[in-house]
Design brief:
Blueprint lengths: L24 H13 L4 H33 L4 H22 L2 H6 L1 H13 L6 E4 L2 E7 L2 E3 L1 H18 L8 H5 L2 H15 L3 H18 L4 H19 L2 H11 L14 H13 L24 H34 L3 H26 L16 H19 L4 H17 L4 H9 L1
Antiparallel strand pairs: 1-2, 2-3
Helix pairs in contact: 2-3, 2-13, 2-15, 3-15, 5-6, 5-8, 6-8, 6-9, 6-14, 6-15, 8-9, 9-10, 9-14, 12-13, 13-14, 14-15
Amino acid sequence: MTTISRPRPTATVRPRTSRQPATSPSEWSLASVGEWLRSPVAPYYLVLASAGILTALGLVMVLSASGPRSFVDSGSSYTVFLEQVAFAGVGIVLALVGSRVPVRWWKRMAFPAILLALGLQAAVFTGLGVEFQGNRNWISIAGFSLQPSEFGKLALVVFGAAVLANRRKVIHRIVPATAPFVFPFGLVLVGLVLQGHDLGTAMIMVAIVVGMLWAAGLPAKWFVGVGAVAAGGVAFLAAGSANRMQRIQVWLGDICDSPHAANGGCFQKVHAEYALADGGWWGLGLGASREKWGLLPEPHNDFILAIIGEELGLPGTMAVLLLFAVLAYACFRIVSQSDDPFIRLATAGVMIWLLGQALLNIGSVIGMLPIIGVPLPLVSSGGSALIAALIGVGLLLALARSVPGAAERLKARPSALRRTLAVVPTRRAAGRGSRR
């Protein structure tokens, strides 16, 4: 009997291609992250995430840094923190509202905003004005203090973007390009702030004006003269104040190396360095700061970064720098992806405002700059500064939504979520299917 064997199937050999798909999880993750960063919605979420984390970190550190001083002043360690939470709540609500305001309405609010800013800043010199530590830049209304210059920065950004966006054809001519942004509104607002002896805030405003003129395309030759005038003005104002000259001497000189360095103008500088040195690489732990116990002045305000370094160490301070870098990158993406001149200029203005103020504050704390007295945006204690900065974040979110393709992608996400949930079987339906 003959047995006939069935032929075995031959394996199909597929030719190898030169490009094989990435199978490594790390390669897939890097590719997906890179693809997401190139999407039009990336700037929106980067602004939202970086600003949100900075605000949350600020609340935690204000609670830690303000406890001892708050207990001495009010009998409760939570007074300053609860006030900051209330300010953050108001600012977040206004930021959410601002993020939904169409860009055309931001343009329409430009002129009323600058007029309101000028009126509030002028009110500082009336009976409503309040002086604090030599600066007269607050007004008191119904028991609440307000610093108009913080909202003046926002008004300057919106007004400058609206004016410069309409002057693209004459941007090469200094007088038509800068009027009325610089002459008269910008100069009057900065002058009122200087009249209140707040040089740090005035420097931020000047940086906003100069930076927006640069972003608008004003020829570089004009910035040589502007820089010389600005430097001369700062030098003149510094020379006319004994307190400012002492801060510059502390920064440039070696008087803080003496055994009595902790006295006089060196007190803040030396104790900020003590805080950072005590923190070392990994910090003393959240709440374990020593300098906040009556040693370092303004631990929850201008010098909150020193407390972050003391309690959270180098990872904490580097996290703050990284978050501001992410915010800067998001602003750059909005500027580079948008074709609307108002969006580009307003984004540049907010970026210069928040990042410039952060650089001044960080430079003062670590000793790279004289102590200027400006808060760390979104982190330091202070109602007016926090609310104004969060409104600025709301403006950034509104501008990010206007990037080509972003609004459509953001609207499509809830619809995609609903479609996904629609095909997921409920527990009851799944149970009936199993019984069958």
